[in-house]
Amino acid sequence: MAEFVECASLSIQYDAVGKASVSFTVIKNSNSEVTGYKTFNYGGVDFNGVIMRKEQQYIRGSGKWFQWSMQWQGVGN
Which of 2, 9, 13, 43 has its Cβ near the most Cβ atoms within 10 Å? Predict the structure, then answer.
């Protein structure tokens, strides 16, 4: 099974108290649920958080590929 984050979809926002909100798309060659993505490292800072929203969509004409639109929130250590 292959799974990767589509780099062009990555959007990161920080607020004044250190919370990060991240939007990204995961491409996967299976319709099984995406798991993980609890920790990230951005700009040398480790962030721990949770997926707040995820939405699956079939990629038309791809055979068996799906994209998951993800919204993640966390705080830096």
Answer: 9
Which residue range is the domain that position 43 belongs to? 3-76
pTM of the model: 0.86
- Rounded to a whole number of angstroms, the distance between the first and last alpha carbons of the chain is 32
**Number of domains making up the chain:** 1
Contact (Cβ atoms closer than 8 angstroms) between residue 47 and residue 27: no
